[in-house]
Structure formats: structure tokens, C-alpha cells
Specification:
The chain has helices at about 10-15, 70-80; strands spanning about 30-35, 45-50, 55-65, 85-90, 100-105, 110-115, 125-130, 135-140. By secondary structure, the protein is mostly beta strands.
Length: about 140
């Protein structure tokens, strides 16, 4: 505050903001992978991920594949949720270096759908909801 009890001008406040530092890296919506140790090839098929921290849910859109990697992962998640290894969301910078990772544990698939339609030639997509009980973040 200055001597007139007024806030300093915004340009002064912004000049010290961390976002202006060249050493600050901000995660991007398009630089991530979602992986599982037991099913490593699923990372190639991920399309989108929406996370709800409050309700501990991940809404995942994942393309189907012809070799069954996605199918096998989904079946394992359905049949063996207690023994399923965590899902790991990894954020990367523009050089491909890891910024941070989130580990979602104690998973349970609660919704799954695929839409088949003769009226379109779109790629087959699985839409799933996976709940988790534990979340850990690791920063680099």
C-alpha cells in the first residue's frame, strides 16, 4: 500500500507475478499422458481426460485399437479393480520434460459406453468414468 492507502497500480503488481518469470512452466492441456504400469500401451490411445477432484472421478475418452490393448485394460479394470495398478497422469513441458505427475489409486470403473453408428465413419471411442480413492502429486 502507498501512503494514500491505495493499492499499487496493476502494472507494478504484475511485474513481480511468477508467470512473468522465464523459469515458470505452466502445464498445458495438450501435453500429458495417462499410463498404467500393467497396460503400458494404453497411453497411445488416450484422447481426452477430465478430472473432478471434488468427487474423485476421471472421465476418460480413449480410442479403441485393433490389437486389444484398450479392451484388455478395460476388462482388467472391470474384473480386478482391487489389484489394478494406479493410473498416472504426467504433465510435460514443451521440451518433453516432466513437470509433475498425479497418481490415482484404488480405482473403480463406474461407467462405460461406446457408440456404434452406420451413419458415420468416426473412430470407435470408449467413454469411461473411473473413480479413485487416493490421489498423490509429485512435482519435479
Amino acid at each position: 500500500m502507498n501512503k494514500n492507502n491505495k493499492k499499487p497500480p496493476q502494472d507494478i503488481m504484475f511485474s513481480v507475478h511468477p508467470v512473468t518469470s522465464s523459469s515458470t512452466t505452466i502445464p498445458r492441456k495438450s501435453r500429458w499422458t495417462l499410463t498404467n504400469e500393467d497396460h503400458p500401451n494404453i497411453l497411445w490411445w488416450m484422447k481426452a481426460l477430465k478430472n473432478d477432484y471434488l468427487n474423485k472421478k476421471n472421465f476418460i475418452e480413449i480410442y479403441d485399437d485393433s490389437k486389444g490393448d484398450v479392451f484388455n485394460w478395460l476388462q482388467d479394470l472391470i474384473a480386478n479393480p482391487k489389484s489394478h495398478k494406479p493410473l498416472v497422469l504426467t504433465h510435460y513441458d514443451n521440451a518433453g520434460e516432466v513437470i509433475a505427475s498425479l497418481k490415482f489409486s484404488d480405482l473403480k470403473i463406474t461407467e462405460h459406453s461406446t457408440d456404434y453408428d452406420y451413419g458415420t465413419s468416426s473412430v470407435l471411442l470408449h467413454k469411461i468414468t473411473v473413480t479413485y480413492q487416493k490421489l498423490e502429486r509429485q512435482n519435479t
